[in-house]
Structures are given as C-alpha cells and as structure tokens.
Specification:
This is DDE family transposase. This protein is an alpha+beta fold. The chain has helices at 3-17, 64-88, 99-123, 134-137; strands spanning 21-29, 38-47, 50-51, 54-58. 49% of the residues lie in helices and 19% in strands. Strands 1, 2, 3 and 4 form a 4-stranded antiparallel β-sheet that branches.
Length: 140
C-alpha cells in the first residue's frame, strides 16, 4: 500500500475513533536521478490537526518505527541542541579578528551549554523546566 493510501486509511480510522493514528511502513523507490532503488520509511500520523506524513530515505537495517523514532528523530533533536547553542549561547558569534579569540568564545559557549544541560538534568529533574530550552531558563 502506498503512502497516499495509508494516509487516507489513517484519516478514516481517526474519524471513527477520534484518537491519534500513527503507522509505519516501508517501500522501495527509485527516482529518475537515482542509479538504484532505495528503502523509504513512511510514518503516517493523523491527529486533530490533520495528517502528518513523513518519508525518510535510508539504507539502515531495522524496523521502520525503531529507525524513525530512535535514529531519525534523535538526529533532529541533536540539530535542535546545536541551534540552541548557536542562538541562545551565541556560539555563532565569531567577530574577533584573531582565530584564537573566536575559538575561546566557542569554548566558553560550549562550557555554558554543558553547565546548562547539567542543571537541567540534575537540578530541574521532574520539573516543567527539565526539558526547557536555554532561552526559557535564562535569567533576565
């Protein structure tokens, strides 16, 4: 069953149960520009906000849900942490003329992130701030 058919089926099931529907499947596909077929993992999700299909091209072996939830989503979360360090802790600021000065700024930003993550993990465990972004926890 192709992803469009899965999406329609998920929408129907949601309409009947009014509960979030989340399915995983896979198929092989080759775009014209590809030299061989690739494995495509499909996540079909339907909620009160509508359909949320996702497609991931992979050559990894494993069950589709495991690969999506544990590897693909974790990669996205890591990108969020990098963005958080760049934006909230000014890791992207390299305005000094000397390389070592910029390197030192990046080191300070990294140390600040490690400190913030440690506080989140230990001191804020079990609170609503345990998963908060740096900008949320910043003192003003």
């Amino acid at each position: 069953m192709r992803s469009a058919q899965w999406q329609q089926a998920a929408e129907k099931q949601y309409a009947l149960s009014n509960k979030k529907v989340r399915w995983f499947d896979e198929f092989h596909y080759a775009a014209r520009s590809w030299q061989r077929t690739r494995r495509i993992i499909v996540k079909i999700e339907h909620t009160d906000k509508g359909s949320h299909p996702r497609h991931v091209v992979t050559n990894l072996i494993g069950k589709p849900q495991f690969l999506y939830d544990k590897l693909y989503s974790a990669r996205g979360e890591m990108e969020n942490r990098i963005k958080e360090q760049q934006l909230d802790l000014l890791a992207d600021r390299t305005s000094c003329h000397r390389w070592w000065s910029n390197q030192f700024r990046l080191l300070l930003s990294s140390l600040a992130y490690i400190l913030q993550e440690t506080i989140r993990r230990l001191a804020l465990q079990g609170t609503e701030l345990a998963q908060a972004y740096v900008s949320t926890c910043a003192l003003s």
